[in-house]
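My current task is to audit a protein record that another person submitted. What it holds is a sequence and that sequence's fold in token form. Thanks in advance; the entry in question is below.
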Amino acid sequence: MLEGARKYVEIHGSPMLGKTHSEGTKRKIAERAKGRKAWNAGKKMPNISAAHMGGGNPMSRRIEFRGVQYPSIADAARETGFSPIQIRTRLKKGEGRYMDVDPQEA
């Protein structure tokens, strides 16, 4: 990169910042992209199953939240509509409990 261009980028960021391509340029870019293989063409997608999420995670902790037992905080979040952070906060406040903790210790 030329020194002048390098200084411009350091001061202003990307040279395209705040600018848009003209319709003609967009057509040229689209024309060149036709027929180009996608970056992930031919790659296998990971098999994401229930075993990879929540209850299948060996590090997850079973919880009881609002009288219902869940395999993990993530599963409780999906079922209740609360975010995982909201559930974790409520567990700390005593609205639920971790199943691996003895209630007398808590």
In short: Strands lie at 63-65, 68-70, 96-98.
